């Protein structure tokens, strides 16, 4: 029986899904950029099977602003004569995240969470999404089981704070 042409062995093909949005140095966008890179590298792990390939892939998306300047300086620091030695992907990842980490991410998220309000044009689903994103950014945990205050469920102070914050964010007209 003949083997179909598609099943023949050869070089793996890169799966073409959305590539990361280029990163220009906006610290608030670093987490999303790195997650997009990690996902792309994961689904194409047969192609990006070496630290140099992974590093080169991420570097190719550092295209403007502070990120481009950082890329040039980082590459210069890896040069010895005519040779560039990139090192490990983990070390590169740490260098990049330490340089562009959002110093006040938790404080900013808590501030936004405290001031979050559902506008008259905002759907409850949109409020829920924004609320959960801010909770995650603030490093807070949300209960994994349903909380029913009417059933006298004992909940911790973190959950109580989050419930109170969420209730405050809701437009009073939504609850009527």
If you had to describe this structure to a student in words, what would you say it looks like?
- The chain is mainly alpha-helical and 176 residues long.
- The chain has two domains: 17-100; 105-175, no CATH class.
- The chain is 49% helix and 2% strand.
- The protein is built from seven helices and two strands; from the N terminus they run αααββαααα.
- The chain has helices spanning 30-43, 51-59, 65-77, 89-100, 105-115, 124-137, 157-169, and strands spanning 79-80, 83-84.
- It has a two-stranded antiparallel sheet with strand order 1-2.
- The longest helix has 14 residues, at 30-43.
- It is elongated, with a radius of gyration of 23 Å.
- The N and C termini lie far apart (69 Å).
- Give the number of DSSP strands: 2
* Quaternary assembly: single chain
Largest sheet: 2 strands, antiparallel
| Low-confidence runs | 1-7, 144-155
SS strand fraction: under 5%
Average residue pLDDT: 83
Structural class: mainly alpha
* Helical amount: 40-55%
N→C terminal distance: 69 Å
Number of helices: 7
**Cα-based radius of gyration, to the nearest Å:** 23 Å
> What shape does the CA trace take?
elongated
